[in-house]
Amino acid sequence: MKQDLKGILQTHFQFHSFKEGQEEVISSVLNGRHTVAVLPTGTGKSLCYQLPAYIMTGTVVIISPLLSLMQDQVEQIRMRGEKRVVALNSFLERDEKLRILNQLDHFRFIFISPEMLQMESVQKRLNRMKIALFVVDEAHCISQWGYDFRPDYMKLGIIRERLGNPLTLALTATATRAVVEDIAQALKLKEWSEYISSVDRPNIALMAEELQDSEEKDRRLVELVSLLQGPGIIYFSSKKKAEESALLLRSQGVKGVMAYHGGMDQENRILIQQQFIHGQIDIICATSAFGMGINKENVRYVIHYHMPLQLESYLQEIGRAGRDGEKSVAILLYAAGDEALLHFLIESELPSDLQIDRMVQCLKEKTYTALWKEEESLVALAGLSENQWRIMSDFLRNLERANVKIEEALLNFKQFIKDRNDYK
Ligand code: ADP
Ligand code: MG
């Protein structure tokens, strides 16, 4: 078997050896075990589902959280000469979608967004074919403990069951115990194997610099960017600051700088991402919206102008440097008071009394199950932002686990917000 895997690695992928963890994960899957694999960014998680596709019979279905990610993977697979690959997402025209749906079993790889997977027509088609492997990429998005939580990912467990409990592989670079447990539980895996590799990235030098204030930070940023070679990513916790800094760098003669954040439209974001990947843009001034799953090997530096909200985000973000194994740096710029900004960001996202009241009204008679089922419409009804809902749902989920009745949980949440506001 070992020999076979190597052979396939060479003929289909033109790689000579496995990277750390790949062989273990692939073997686990081929032995028919549901598998949760935690491998650092850049170690080649995609191969863990792509290679088995050439051994198993049936289709590999990959759930991926971002359109741009999906597009990127599809292109890569096509470049290898594999034609039987398709992405099902909201970008498709109606006719195109129908055409693809009608010949779904023709494909070896089907990438699909979690929203699209919720459509009954799609589930029906999938149910009729043999799913060799059900892959959840960036699986930490399923966990409310994760910083990338996507409500749509919560539904994957039920969908998996509807699809007849296919063999499942969950992939992520986020390594905490709580997240791994959450992934397995949310996907309703009864038994599973896990492969968790070290998060150490020996080729990335980590540094932090303390500076007086934001003016000094700006000066240092310009200096660093002129000193450092190769493509780089600079992270900010505000969209405005990301844009301003892109302008600042340009005004200082730095070329190939663009801003990227969640406030920009989808098409523009994909364009910038593609240009960065293909080397037409060298430096991205971004918020945390940038980078998940980006497959660019030669990012030489990641600078944090602001520290991220969570240590895990920091790990994930610096992990985008040096995927090619070459020397790279991660530099954190710190000025006294930066934490206050983080606190402000968290606080300013708290729902208002009015919003909570509306939510309480909507939820009074409901069960938690109904709540998670109808969350989208309820959230819209109360006018909550994605982050506000994240804070609120985290809170409610904890109380649900503690068997607190929903009315009481809502009152608790209201009190929690009130305390916070008084404190401010
Ligand atoms: P991840 O999802 O873990 O961040 P990817 O699957 O995007 O990583 O792969 C990162 C890069 O590593 C890709 O360019 C891929 O072609 C390359 N790669 C994957 N497996 C191998 C291997 N066994 N040998 C060499 N390169 C590999
Ligand atoms: Mg990946």
From TrEMBL:
Q: Where is each Helicase ATP-binding domain found?
A: 26-193
> Is RNA-binding there in the keyword field?
no
InterPro entries attached here?
DEAD/DEAH_box_helicase_dom, DNA/RNA_helicase_DEAH_CS, DNA_helicase_ATP-dep_RecQ, Helicase_ATP-bd, Helicase_C-like, P-loop_NTPase, RecQ_Zn-bd, WH-like_DNA-bd_sf
Residue span, Helicase C-terminal domain: 220-367
Q: Does the keyword Magnesium apply?
A: no
Which keywords describe this protein according to UniProt? ATP-binding, DNA-binding, Helicase, Hydrolase, Nucleotide-binding
UniProt-listed Pfam families:
DEAD, Helicase_C, RecQ_Zn_bind
User: What's the superkingdom here?
Assistant: Bacteria
Which CDD domains is this protein grouped with?
Answer: DEXHc_RecQ
Question: Listed GO molecular functions?
Answer: DNA helicase activity; hydrolase activity
Name the UniProt record assigns to this protein? ATP-dependent DNA helicase RecQ
